[in-house]
Write a structure and sequence with these properties.
It is a single chain. By secondary structure, the protein is α/β, with parallel strands linked by helices. It has 2 domains: 13-182, 3-Layer(aba) Sandwich (Rossmann fold), CATH 3.40.50.720; 193-343, no CATH class. Helix content is 42%, strand content 9%. It is built from 12 helices and 7 strands. It has helices at 20-31, 61-82, 160-169, 182-192, 194-209, 214-235, 244-247, 250-259, 264-276, 278-283, 288-299, 336-343, and strands at 13-16, 36-39, 54-57, 107-110, 128-134, 150-155, 173-176. Strands 2-1-3-4-5-6-7 form a 7-stranded mixed sheet. Strand 3 (54-57), helix 2 and strand 4 (107-110) form a beta-alpha-beta unit. Residues 17-22, 41-42, 58-61, 63, 66-67, 110-113, 133-134, 136-138 line the site of NADP nicotinamide-adenine-dinucleotide phosphate.
């Protein structure tokens, strides 16, 4: 599904921070015609950020509070020096007394997914506050903002619409979040993104145990992960789940766990994630007896396996099984070590 970018709202933006998100955001806003500057949050120059309509704190989560403190001090100094709140010109459309928010109407937002507006409290008297988080992973400063990204927004009235408009300008999807939901929302993002990396790391170590070097191990797994995501995109949940659990292949699960005995951390992760597939298997219509055998295998590799004695495993009842492209490591062409691994007794898939 594509998301159409909408025309940019008439706001100026200052991005504080020079890291990954700061670069991505500054580049994307500039490309869409939004006047934007990027400034280091450590430099005294940061005070210029208060001249923009919207100041974006794209700094580490733990730095948001200290940077907000510093900006509040900057703003107070400017107010004392110039007789006005920083950046607030006479005739500014955001007049003091505006019933929708604080005095100037200038917005200050952070980009943390998990934090509410509390770290920005030092600026509350004179600014509308918000949190504006893209649900995307930025691995480098060159990672561009992707289309179709959901941006979690929590903001004071009056700033919400601006953030939503900027989001659609960037080709994203705005989602309003209650402050108390942000940690839950960000836990979802962390599980889907960061924990995928953790799982791939454990999988790569197993392939290295089979003799692949680190890069070959990752290269073997990436097409598998991509095809898994493609399957999720195509058929969604729960149909996007493939592999031995959804097939009811208890014997394969037991063989996996036996093979993981030398790596207890990986075995614990395998069991935990396997058990967590329970609800997906229910949603796929797996019959209760097979489901119980699967759960038991994940809990205890020595548990009796209902379908582990050469009997043809019946398909899960009502199982709309999609093409099963995600249950076996793809061949690493020309890599004898991987073939040896696949041929090793007890490691078949
Ligand atoms: N990267 C992602 O995938 C991603 C995705 C969504 C949201 N976010 C959010 O975006 C924000 C920035 O993350 P990022 O990944 O872009 O971080 P990053 O690449 O590590 O950059 C962090 C920035 O914060 C600055 N900083 C750190 N401590 C500071 C301090 N005490 N005072 C002033 N500046 C300080 C750093 O300055 P120095 O370089 O001088 O240390 C740097 O410019 C975070 O709130 C994060 O949760 C990140």
């Amino acid at each position: 599904m594509t998301t159409q970018a909408s025309p940019a709202p008439a706001v100026t933006v200052a991005v504080l921070g020079t890291g990954r998100l700061a670069h991505a955001l500054t580049t994307a806003l500039a490309a869409r015609g939004v006047p934007v500057t990027m400034l280091s949050a450590r430099s005294p120059e940061r005070t210029r950020a208060l001249d923009a309509d919207l100041t974006v704190l794209a700094v580490s989560d733990d730095a948001i509070g200290p940077v907000a403190d510093a900006l509040a001090t900057d703003a107070a100094a400017r107010a004392a020096g110039h007789g006005s709140t920083a950046g607030h010109e006479a005739g500014d459309e955001h007049e003091a007394g505006d019933e929708q928010g604080p005095a100037t109407g200038h917005g200050v937002v952070h980009c943390s997914g998990a934090l509410d507006l509390t770290p920005l409290a030092p600026l509350a008297a004179d600014h509308r506050l918000g949190a504006w988080h893209p649900m995307q992973a930025f691995a480098t400063v060159d990672t561009p903002i992707a289309p179709g990204v959901t941006w979690g927004i929590t903001a004071d009235p009056g700033l919400r619409d601006v953030l939503a408009e900027l989001t659609t300008t960037l080709g994203g999807r705005p989602v309003l979040l209650r402050p108390e939901d942000r940690a839950r929302y960000h836990a979802a993002a962390t599980m889907a993104s960061n924990y995928t990396v953790v799982l791939v790391d454990h999988a790569a170590r197993l392939l290295q145990d089979c003799g692949l070097d680190a890069r070959s191990a990752l290269d073997a797994l990436l097409p598998l992960v991509r095809s898994t995501l493609d399957g999720l995109q195509d058929v969604g949940l729960p149909a996007g789940l493939t592999g031995p659990a959804v097939r009811g292949d208890v014997g394969t699960i037991r063989r996996h766990l036996a093979a993981l005995a030398a790596r207890p951390d990986t075995a614990a992760l395998y069991r935990a994630v396997g058990l967590a597939a329970h609800d997906l298997l229910v949603a796929r219509g797996m019959d209760p007896a097979t489901l119980a055998a699967i759960d038991a295998a994940f809990r205890d590799p020595d548990a009796p396996a209902r379908h582990d004695h050469g009997d043809p495993t019946p398909p899960a009842h009502g199982d709309p099984t999609p093409p099963d492209h995600g249950d076996a490591a793809p061949p690493a062409h020309g890599d004898a070590a991987l073939r040896d691994c696949a041929d090793h007794p007890g490691s078949s898939t």
